[in-house]
Amino acid sequence: MRAPNMLLIFLVIVLPARPAAGQDRVAGLAERAESQVLAIVGATLVDGTGRPPVEESVVVIRNGLVECADSAVQCAIPAEARLVDARESWVIPGLIDAHVHYSQTGFADGRPDALDLRERFPYDSTVAVNRLDPGRYHRAYLCSGVTGVFDVGGFPWTWGLRDDARRTAEAPHVAAAGPLLSTADHWLNLPGERQFLHIPTDSAVSAAARYVALNRSDGLKVWFLHGESSEDAAGWEGRVTLAGELADRWEVPLLVHATALWQAKVAVRAGADVLVHSVYEGPVDDEFLALAREAGTIYTPTLTVHAGYAQLAARSFDADAYGDALACVDTKTRAKAFLTDSLPGGATPEQIERRRVAGERRSAIMAENLRRVKAAGIPIAMGTDAGNPLTLAGPSVYVEMEAMQAAGMSPMEVLESATRTSAAAMGRLDDLGTLEPGKVGDLVVLSADPTVDIRNVRTVALIVRAGRVLRREDLEWR
Questions:
Q1: Domains and CATH numbers, the chain
Q2: What is the mean pLDDT of residues 89-96?
């Protein structure tokens, strides 16, 4: 969907020409090479703080930072401001995806453990392209209204994405956890690079945690796969607990992949700041809810990532889930997604049916657990696990947010999860996630009301990144 033509025509008239390449690259979080004042006028403002929407609002951004975001009575329009007439529109903070993977592609070539296509798409080449050309993912996120992402596990080069993002308005803000501490000796590495650091002993935990911390990581991520009935359950509990102690010592947030209740309790007791997935192997209980609430652990549901694996197995890409937003995905990634339907092999009809039933059961558990987590007052962040097969960087946020609403969250609750709480998950609540004075001027202009139905977040017309206005149509791939 497009914003009203009036809005787009007005912008063509009043916005400055796009700077020449490199002109707007600066060192620093939000300063702009062109000191400017931007005023977005007349929209209904949903600022991410939880307060009611403000009609006939004014948002003033000076030198990339929010100067005022409130009613026209509270916010004067500076005489020197460049005006954006946003009447009959809605303004929200830039969305933040709190669970992404730049090391993966959104197709099977980035996860050959799911479907091995290495003869056709060599894995080392696939990863090299991701490292050399992250801009296609940056653009997909911005096009989708996402101005911040948390890469919660990947090759060491993902740490460098943070500095790249600070130098340009043509990328979302990036936080990165780097290589994961894995309880399984996963083979998905490269000869000279590892994204999984196996931790079979306490000494391995210590060495891996030190390596991650010394690289100024934004998180110490533990991929906790062993269950309560495993042969060395006590040992794995001890090693995850040690990882938490080391994260605390090194002052690095602890992130844990824990999908079983036992794992999640171990993680929370170890000091997990963020659980990057739902508990979906069974219902949560009162003990877990009390532990997580007391610890202030952020819960990231990632409700929809499993659907991509099911589509891959069935050789049937569900493009309809993305709709028009698929235009935000670059043409090569899009072509690979559509290639899914013509891949050889695939599950039998009986296997597809069993997978569908199992998926529905898992989804029901995740939805009920999300309702219980919400009722318990535990903070909830929005994350997609983008990069996994057929969970595409950028517009997958719409699919995830709609699933959160379907699970019982109100549109306002979903918006707060996708802005303020996701900013907290990536350690950036001090400058991102809400439209308040002093924070970075990241926002999205929508042409329909997101507080009525979260699906209206799809109606992106404009994206403002640190005060720079980007048109959705200019970011789409043709």
A1: 5-94+432-475 (2.30.40.10), 95-425 (3.20.20.140)
A2: 98
